[in-house]
Amino acid sequence: MLKPLRQGLPPLDPTAVSEAASCALPARYEAVREARHFTRSTLGHWDVGDRFDDIALVVSELVTNALRHALPAELPSGAPRSAPVRLHLLRWTGRLVCAVRDPSNETPVPRETEDDFSAESGRGLLLVESFADGWGWHPVEGEAGGKLVWALFRLGGTA
Hints:
Blueprint: E1 19-25, H1 30-45, H2 52-69, E2 85-92, E3 95-102, H3 124-131, E4 134-139, E5 147-154
Antiparallel strand pairs: 1-2, 2-3, 3-5, 4-5
Helix pairs in contact: 1-2, 2-3
């Protein structure tokens, strides 16, 4: 899951994760509120310093994007609607990663919003890009498929 995080960024040893938490999110927009609550509760136990608000904003944007763009309008009959999106929070000393897994294979692409500054949507990945220290995505291998969109935060003044 973390191999792409090591490309062009300081090394992150998956075995050195000091804290990890994840939660399944249902296919409904109320899941954004659930993700924020989970993030607030989890990060309340971790020392994230002054990055808390940035992390909460990015989690909201990543989950919103997964719900808005990665789920089919109609799930096939018999498909589980209960938890098609999953939020992962991983902390190392000095770094934190938020990752959202969804069932889509589509590439997440920031929209150009130059033409309409009053638009109420379309800026999610631009916000992620602005508030996180890095972000990216990669396909999930295996039968389940889908993708993982992640954002990296440096904590405590780590360069």
